[in-house]
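Moderator note: this is an archived Q&A kept for reference. The question asked for a predicted structure of one protein chain; the sequence and the answer are reproduced below.
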Amino acid sequence: MAFHFVALIFSICSFILLLIANLGTTFDSTFLPQIYLVKIDESITGRSIRFGVYNSCLYYNATTTPHSCTTKMPAYSFDAEQFAEFCGADMSNSTMVKTYTDVVSKTNLTTFRGIVLIMPAVILIFISLCCTFLIRSFQRNNIIPFIGTFSSLFGFFAGAAGLALSIVTFWKGLDILERRIVGISHQWGPTIYLVGIGSGCILIALVCFVINLFSYKSDKRETLHLYDYDSNNNDVAATNNNIIYDTVHVSPPTTKQDDYDYEYYHAVSSPTTQNYPTYHQQQSYPQYHQNNNNYY
């Protein structure tokens, strides 16, 4: 199996998983409200808060429809007033609300904003996915594997860093809240596992891109020699044509030479015709005899 095909499969899996993780708790329909990072429950009030990538929603008495949600935005902060309402505080009593907000301020839950790194991770993984589609049909050099390698690399780091920041922040912060407020407990949501598995898939795709990057061999032909060979053949053919042209298209002989050739041809080729010497032969005979006499 080709490495670009393996990279294609794992890039698709990673993109789908991280896309679902991004959309979790963002919409109130279908199964998306069940996709969250972490959920905290209050056993006394029966309320819960589900934290997603872009917002958090408050639920009353284990209902499927959220009572209220924070504004959808990247890198949102932990809402202390929503937490006070979650704990059963009277929202009209500012003193009671301030008691819970002070507790939240000491937990340092603001660093969980790092989960926003999942959003650029999805974009980078989508670029890697596009490279896997192009690498088979349009690869003429190492540019496409190079882009796929770095997009996969940065996508993996972005997803893994966002996931690590979220886990560490909630782990420490919620531990403090659970010790100070009675009845609070938490559980990790499906987004944690989706981002973790998606980051693992893009890591495998990264390895395939690196192998393809270093194992690719250019399929260039030595066209220079072929072109030189063709040009030499053309030169030889042109030379031969010129020779033939010069041989066929000779300059026309003089009229006297034509008469001589015509008389000589008929004198030699016609057996019934008596061979009489031509004018040129008559002129040459005396010279021939004179030379013979001198010789003797």
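Archived answer notes: The chain is about 60% helix and 5% strand.
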